[in-house]
Amino acid sequence: MKILLTGSAGFIGFHLSLLLLNNNNEVHGIDNMNNYYDKKLKLSRNKILKKHTKFYFYKIDINQKKKIDNIIKKFKIKYIVHLAGQAGVRDSVTKPELYFKSNIEGFYKILEICRDNRIKHLVFASSSSVYGNNNKIPFKEDDNTDQPLSFYAASKKTNETMSYAFSNIYKIPITGLRFFTVYGPYGRPDMSLYKFSKNILHGKKIDLYNNGNHIRDFTYIEDVVSIVQKIIKKIPSKKVPFSIYNIGSGKPKKINDYIKEIQKQFKKKIKVNNLPLQLGDVLKTHSSNNLLNKELNYKPKKDINYGISRFIKWFKKYHKIN
Ligand SMILES: NC(=O)c1ccc[n+]([C@@H]2O[C@H](COP(=O)([O-])OP(=O)(O)OC[C@H]3O[C@@H](n4cnc5c(N)ncnc54)[C@H](O)[C@@H]3O)[C@@H](O)[C@H]2O)c1
């Protein structure tokens, strides 16, 4: 299979590219290599991908439609996985324009590309943040998603509605994935596990919001990419060929308990700087995996202790810490 994968130097994009390449697919990776977080991490992920002969990399922005069109035509690509985007809830409070440019304008370009090239399946990253502070637990795909608490969440909800309309009018098969706090080796430096690990090792305090009473459905990267690989081949065929799936572990954990596990594994105590709840943050996420389990026999396998230990092992090696 030939796949155009945007955001290939990003955390999820890197792991998914690697899995697809290991299974003998041809991956055309696109990334603008922006500096939202340390570019070195993106470069080191890219270095690993470039060892594969069936990996092609293009340093371009998703807004450069003509360039992407040319790649698709030249290699006769029929599948797109769109993971490029401005991630993170907190920056969307101070810099919403970045989210508009990549997540809304850029997303629209991807839709046009799919329409103009008769793409067989577009799979794109949405987010659990679309559920806002819904009280009904666990979150199901058909629950209300009309009250996004951040502009990031709003941009993802916008992607879902834009793509539904494109799917309805132009009959483009599209699947949106609501990822729930994905973590693991090569994870993002702006996410809690990375930040906590860094501060523990440097003996610095961690910023803890809301007394650590948040609850998150942490989902291990291997579980995520193995199901996404299956989803690429599951092309929606309903009248409006559009699907949405939650991708979570279904086992939410309180941040305080998460921290206890990290402390245990580092054998070090975390010092805490208590801060109030952040603007835009949701209190709890909890994925219902029923739909994905029913349709694709999805059963996440990796528990949090395993996931944290894999992350810490990678983190120490990557930063050359004994
Ligand atoms: N990691 C999570 O827990 C999580 C949860 C929910 C949703 N998501 C979504 O999944 C997707 C992947 O997330 P991730 O954790 O791998 O994030 P990431 O930031 O590591 O990866 C995104 C990649 O896209 C690239 N990019 C951003 N804007 C671009 C543009 N305009 N043109 C080209 N490339 C661009 C970045 O350079 C980056 O390498 C994102 O859309 C994110 O919003 C992630």
Structure description:
- The chain has a domain at 2-183 and 218-247: 3-Layer(aba) Sandwich (Rossmann fold), CATH 3.40.50.720.
- The chain has helices spanning 11-22, 39-49, 65-75, 91-94, 96-116, 151-170, 192-201, 221-233, 255-266, 290-296, 304-318, and strands spanning 2-6, 26-30, 55-58, 79-82, 121-127, 174-179, 182-183, 205-209, 215-216, 219-220, 242-247, 253-254, 271-275.
- It contains eleven helices and 13 strands.
- The termini are far apart.
- Helix content is 42%, strand content 17%.
- The strands form four sheets. It has a seven-stranded parallel sheet with strand order 3-2-1-4-5-6-11, with helices on both faces.
- Nicotinamide-adenine-dinucleotide binds at residues 7, 9-13, 30-34, 36, 42, 61-62, 83-87, 102, 106, 125, 127, 179, 181-182, 188.
Q: What's the total helix number?
A: 11
| Estimated structural class | alpha/beta
* Helical percentage: 40-55%
Do you know the CATH topology of the domain at 2-183 and 218-247?
A: Rossmann fold
Which architecture name of the domain at 2-183 and 218-247 does CATH use? Answer: 3-Layer(aba) Sandwich
CATH superfamily of the domain at 2-183 and 218-247: NAD(P)-binding Rossmann-like Domain
Q: Write the H/E string, N to C.
A: EHEHEHEHHEHEEHEEEHEEHEHH
**Radius of gyration (Å):** 19 Å
- The poorly predicted ranges are none
Distance between the termini: 41 Å
